[in-house]
Design brief:
It is a single chain. The radius of gyration is 27 Å and the shape is globular. Strand 1 and strand 2 form a beta hairpin. By secondary structure, it is mainly beta. It has one domain: Beta Barrel (Maltoporin, Chain A). The N terminus is likely disordered. The protein has a 22-stranded antiparallel β-barrel. It has a 5-stranded mixed β-sheet with strand order 3-8-9-6-7. Strands 17-43-42 form a 3-stranded antiparallel β-sheet, with no helix packed on it.
């Protein structure tokens, strides 16, 4: 199988090169002198703001990959998954919460995998302003560019830039009126519409740009459960306005507003299970995929008293095609509507939330930035941003068709409203953030300085409810299951930072930069809407806490430096080295405070505290950037070594309950240590007027030094995880893009192009035990188009070879209402997500 897969990948790669070579060879102009093409190639220099000032990307001593608007369009990038597929070293994990919709999307850069759904190691920015949600990135219409900064960026970007940062830079309107429109339609009912207009309101003083985007698609997977339908439906609507105000020379103020709304159906995901899931009659509902077994124990704690060996079947190695059809009980009927209409204890009002199975999200973002040239050498800059997001998602938590498991059997209540096993679950979350930053910059021939301060205030609140019993009625529900559990309290962080940097050019070739940020993180966790009584002093002081009362707080202070040595060996070749430290803010185990005394005692015994320490990183990096062939060839290569310490890891706790199913809960603690190293390279080559090639690749290796997981040790009997790799991240990844095109003689502004893009990601581990792995994945996309005057028509095919291999894999719980659900079958399954299948379509563009 590996040989066949490799042959397919090789065939895909060679097919792109063959297409480009054949078409290019047919053009007599291939023999043109290099000098005639170099001028155009060198004109494509990319400017980035990785160090809070505009610099040529090839003269910026930071590892950064940039996507211009033209490059995003050429590659067909419209989602975070598209961006990750075209960025070696970047993965998107959307399965960590037991469902694979767009609610939880974790950015995994260089193998720095976040360990909880609310954690992040790579922060997101728009024009340098922090944002709390990846949804903003797919809502911005035709940005100037997207900058992916790799390695700790704490010195300039601050909080949660532990592994890197992603910054979207908006396109600014100018002094001329321009507009454009786009209409696209493809298979699986793929639709995209875009309209943009920009121009001056007051010439040379005030400019505006407005945009509107709509995207929708049907899922490409058919639901095998009763009622059918498709899984993976998505739609997004967004609008934005950018205003630039230049009242006099030296002052520029830019304002930006973004509104977006996502409305998705149920996702296409499922589980590999280690045991057959059967109904009472013995009919197999889910066939198991077990191909190995482990000898674990009943406690998962090394050397604990009362250990009993347990043999656990499991799924080992690289998983294959799921043996069970993708299915979910996601029928939107009166029962579903009644459940979603319950108003009590909601974070999102029923009329504003999801109206059936799927996701509904509303996101608003506003920011203002300003730059004032005080003198020819001193510039004052400031920014302020506000953002809010509210979403909820209704999922089939068990993730399979339970219609053959009759009500009244196993864990299925006799009063289950649909007459069979079903586990509808509603998750809600609200986030907000506001930030300010001000800085002064000084520029001279040999000295560059910047200094300033920043403030970020962010909140998050979550809620969830669901049951296998009665779904309709008011809260609290009658016997049959609680459907309206109270939302958790608000968690808030306030981050204050003072930062600065000095770069001195000792010679025309050698410069050294010293940068740093002193940061104070203040974390608060508040009670929910109901009083809570704490009787166990191991977590917080005993007593009764009123609704919305402060439960716990903590303050952490850290200094995060970075030193860069930059040597310009020639005008076209730069060598740099850097040393940097970063900090990822701490977290709270606030969920444990409101649980039973037995749970709190067990958590304290396992070393879980209310507050955990911040994670820390020390990163060493060496890079080379430059151009050759008079600018026709551009390249960047970087190698890094990072030490991740005080890593925050998830802890699952199994709490025995007399004569009842054990309680499965969890928290986080500082129980990990990881070393990471890798090498990344990017090349862009404009061979001549007809042919351009871009390619990139990365090896991102990780070595776990220390890790602890009670649930994994119960399953596998493994207590020493040293030498294993981090999950959810591809060790090997690469991209290749080949484009052939040219002007058409005799046509006014006429041209044609054919482009092929291939992306490769190696398989990812499902967890730190490294027992199960997703398959390698290669995807090939093709686009071709022709332009005449203001009109362009393109055809495209994504996932040309219809690679349906799963895109993510994570250790999960098996739901088995007959044989046991939580606890009994914890970690007895692997959760996976399915990709979009092959899609073909046509795009029509117009400019004026």
């Amino acid at each position: 199988m590996k040989t066949i897969r490799f042959q397919r990948q090789l065939s895909a790669s060679m097919s792109l090169v063959a297409i480009a070579t054949t078409l290019a060879a047919a053009q007599p102009a291939f023999a043109q002198a290099a000098d005639e093409t170099v001028e155009e190639a060198d004109a494509g220099a990319i400017v980035v703001t990785a160090r809070k000032r505009e610099e040529d990307i090839l003269q910026t001593p930071v590892t950064v990959q940039a996507f211009t608007a033209e490059k995003l369009d050429a590659k067909g990038v419209t989602t975070m998954q598209d961006l990750a597929a075209n960025t070696p070293g970047l993965n998107i994990n959307d399965s960590s919460s037991g469902h694979a919709d767009r609610g939880f999307q974790q950015v995994v850069l260089r193998g720095f995998t976040p360990v909880t759904t609310l954690a992040t190691t790579t922060s997101l920015f728009i024009d340098g302003v922090p944002v709390s949600s990846p949804s903003a990135f797919t809502s911005i219409s035709s940005p100037e560019r997207i900058e992916i900064l790799k390695g700790p960026q704490s010195a300039y970007f601050g909080r949660n830039t532990f592994a890197g940062a992603v910054n979207v830079v908006n396109r600014e309107p100018g002094n001329e009126f321009h507009g454009s429109g786009l209409v696209s339609y493809g298979t699986h009912d793929n639709q995209k519409y875009r309209a943009e207009i920009e121009g001056p309101i007051l010439e040379d003083i005030l400019y505006l740009r407005g945009s509107f985007d709509y995207f929708s698609k049907k899922g490409s997977w058919v639901n095998a459960a009763a009622g059918g339908g498709t899984l993976g439906d998505q739609s997004s609507t967004s609008g934005s306005v950018t205003a630039v105000f230049k009242p006099f020379t030296g002052l520029k103020i830019k304002g930006f507003m973004l509104f977006s709304k996502d409305s998705d159906g149920a996702p296409a995901n499922g589980r590999y299970v280690a045991y057959d899931v059967k109904n009472a009659a013995g009919t197999v509902i889910l066939k198991n995929s077990a191909n190995c077994s482990f000898t674990g124990d009943n406690r998962g704690v090394l050397g604990a008293a009362g250990l009993v060996a347990v043999v656990n079947p499991y799924i080992c190695g690289t998983v294959g095609t799921p043996p069970n059809p993708v299915s979910a009980n996601v029928k939107n009927d009166a029962i579903t509507a009644g459940f979603l209409a319950i108003p009590e204890n909601r974070l999102v009002r029923p009329q504003n939330g999801v109206q059936g199975y799927g996701l509904r999200r509303n996101y608003h973002h506003y920011h203002v930035t300003g730059d004032l040239d005080i003198t020819d050498q001193i510039t004052f800059s400031a920014l302020a941003g506000w953002g809010t997001e509210a979403w909820n998602t209704m999922i089939d938590l068990d993730g399979f068709d339970g219609s053959l498991i009759a009500a009244g059997t196993g864990a299925t209540p006799a009063n289950a409203p649909r007459g069979f096993y079903d586990f509808p679950f509603l998750v809600e979350r609200k986030t907000s953030d506001n930030s300010i930053e001000a800085r002064l910059a000084y520029e001279s021939d040999s000295l560059h300085m910047v200094g300033g301060f920043s403030y970020l205030n962010a909140t998050v609140q979550s809620a969830q409810r669901g049951t296998t019993g009665i779904l309709v009625g008011v809260a609290p529900a009658p016997a049959g299951g609680s459907v309206a559990g109270a939302p958790g309290g608000v968690s808030r962080n306030k981050t204050y930072g003072i930062f600065g940097g000095i770069t001195y050019d000792f010679t025309e070739q050698l410069s050294i930069s010293a940068e740093g940020r002193y940061q104070t993180d203040k974390l608060y966790v508040f009670n929910g809407a109901f009083p809570v009584t704490v009787t166990v002093p191991d977590l917080i002081p005993v007593g009764t806490y009123a609704p919305n009362a402060l439960l716990a707080s903590a303050t952490y202070k850290n200094f995060m430096p970075r030193v860069i040595v930059n040597f310009q060996a020639t005008p076209d070749l730069m060598i740099y080295g850097s040393w940097a430290k970063g900090v990822n803010p701490a977290q709270f185990n606030s969920n444990l405070i409101t649980q039973t005394a037995a749970t709190q005692v067990a958590a304290a015994a396992a070393g879980v505290k209310v507050a955990v320490l911040p994670e820390k990183i020390t990163n060493y990096e060496l890079g080379v950037k430059g151009k050759a062939l008079d600018g026709a060839l551009r390249f960047a290569v970087a190698a890094y070594y990072a030490q991740w310490r005080d890593q925050i890891n998830s802890v699952q706790l199994l709490i025995p309950v007399a004569n009842s199913t054990p309680i499965l809960t969890g928290g986080v603690q500082n129980a990990g240590s990881v070393d990471l190293k890798g090498i990344e390279a990017e090349i862009a080559f404009r061979a001549n007027d007809y042919l351009t090639i871009d390619m990139a690749g990365a090896i991102n290796d990780s070595n776990i030094k220390q890790f602890k997981s009670v649930s994994l040790s119960q399953l596998t009997g493994i207590y020493d995880y040293s030498g294993k790799e981090m999950p959810y991240s591809s060790k090997y990844s690469a991209t290749l893009g080949v484009q052939v095109g040219h002007d058409i003689d005799g046509w006014d502004n006429g041209s044609w192009f054919i482009r092929g893009d291939m992306s490769y990601k190696s398989g990812t581990w499902s967890g730190q035990a490294n027992t199960s792995k997703s398959p390698d994945r290669t995807v090939v996309n093709l686009r071709a188009g022709i332009t005449k005057g203001p009109f362009t028509i393109e055809g495209y095919v994504t996932n040309l070879f219809n690679n349906t291999s799963i895109t993510s894999l994570i250790d999960q719980t098996a739901f088995d209402p007959i044989g046991g659900t939580f606890g009994v079958r914890a970690n007895a399954a692997l959760f996976y997500n399915l990709p979009d299948q092959r899609t073909a379509g046509v795009v029509v563009k117009a400019k004026f």
